[in-house]
Amino acid sequence: MLVESSAIILPTDFLKTKLFIESIMDQSVMGQDALQLGVVQYGSQPQLVFPLSYDSSEMREKIEAMRELGGGTETGKALRYVSQLFDEGRLGVPKVLIVVSEGRSQDEVADAADMLGHKGVIIYSIGIGSANSKQMARLVHGITDNYFFLRNFTELKSVSGKIMAGICHVN
Asked: What b/e string do you get for 14-38 counting C-beta neighbours within 10 Å, with b at 16 or more?
């Protein structure tokens, strides 16, 4: 999962993002041979919160410890960083990325999204509030069911079930 934590994100909204991550975990069967989750947050620079894992208690501790990074919104740079992490994934297992952003990326996202697409990564894109809807829609490579545009962070809880339903049907 890739979540924005730039200066534009209010502390109360960042808390809602953290709760969203936990809701995805709560709706999942986590395990070595089941769902594994990794989290990267970004502003001007990406920062690994934790790599692919299935240890729910450790993940919850790291999510709780997350703090806003501040800075600008460089979604393209963050996508390129995350792309490298997918090289370490399990063979034969679908690769899925959920991107949550409120900002307008200050760098280009198309090439980075294409790089992930060439690796077979399925992207779910969640644009919130002032996010650049064209940039966020571009991430999903035309799969409109994988793109959500929300008015505010409170609406995040309304999409977790839809995303998990889509992930569960990925072959």
From this structure: bebbbebbbbbbeebeeeeeebbbb
Handedness of CA 146, 93, 22, 43 (dihedral sign): negative
Yes or no: say if 166 and 28 are a contact pair by the CB < 8 Å rule: no
Alpha-carbon distances, residue 11 vs 5, 14, 66, 78, 152 (angstroms): 9, 5, 11, 21, 13
The answer to whether the predicted template modeling score (pTM) of the entire model surpasses 0.70 is yes
Average pLDDT by stretches of 10, the chain with 171 residues: 96 97 91 89 97 92 96 97 88 91 93 95 94 91 93 94 81 49
